[in-house]
Design brief:
This protein is mostly helical and 74 residues long. The chain is built from three helices and no strands. The chain has one domain (9-72). The chain is flat and about 60 Å long.
C-alpha cells in the first residue's frame, strides 16, 4: 500500500496514538503559534479571578493526583 494513500482511519490504535503524539510534540515546540480564542482567554481570566478571591479553593498537585487515582482505581 502506498503510504501517501493510507488513511489515518486505517492505522492501528498504536499507530494512531503515535501520530497524535507527533502532532502534539510539533505544536508544543511553538506554543506561541497555537491560537487561543477569546472564550478561552475569558475562561482563564474567570478562573484566575476566582482563585485570587478564594485561594483555598485551589488544589495541590498531590490532591489532584489523589482524586484522579481514587476515581480511576490507580
Amino acid at each position: 500500500m502506498n503510504p501517501a494513500t493510507v488513511s489515518v482511519f486505517d492505522l492501528s490504535p498504536s499507530e494512531k496514538l503515535q501520530r497524535v503524539e507527533d502532532l502534539w510534540d510539533d505544536l508544543a515546540a511553538t506554543p506561541e503559534s497555537v491560537p487561543v480564542h477569546d472564550g478561552q482567554k475569558e475562561e482563564v481570566a474567570r478562573r484566575r479571578a476566582n482563585l485570587q478571591q478564594n485561594p483555598a479553593s485551589g488544589l495541590t498537585w498531590e490532591e489532584v493526583q489523589r482524586r484522579i487515582r481514587a476515581r480511576h482505581g490507580r
